[in-house]
Amino acid sequence: MVNDKRISKIQALTYELKVRDVMTYKIVSINPKKTIYELRDILRDYRISGTPVVNNGKLVGIISIEDFVNCLSEGEMDALIEDKMSSKVKVLYADEPLVHAVNKLDRYGFGRFPVIDRNGEKLVGIITKGDIIKGVLKKLEVDYHEEEIHRYRASHIFEDIVADRTTLTFQYNVAGKNFDVAGESASKLKKALRRLGIHPDLVRRAAIASYEAEINIVVYTDGGQLTASVRPDQIMIEASDSGPGIPDIEKAIQPGFSTAPEWVQELGFGAGMGLINIKHCVDKLNISSEIGKGTYLKAIINIKQPNL
Amino acid sequence: MNLKDIVKEFNLEVVSSSDNLDREVTGGYVSDLMSDVMANSKSGDIWITLQIHQNIVAVASLKDIVGIVVIGGRKVEEETIEKAETENIPILATELPAFEIVGKLYELGIGREDEDEK
Question: Does the ipTM exceed 0.85?
Answer without folding.
Answer: no
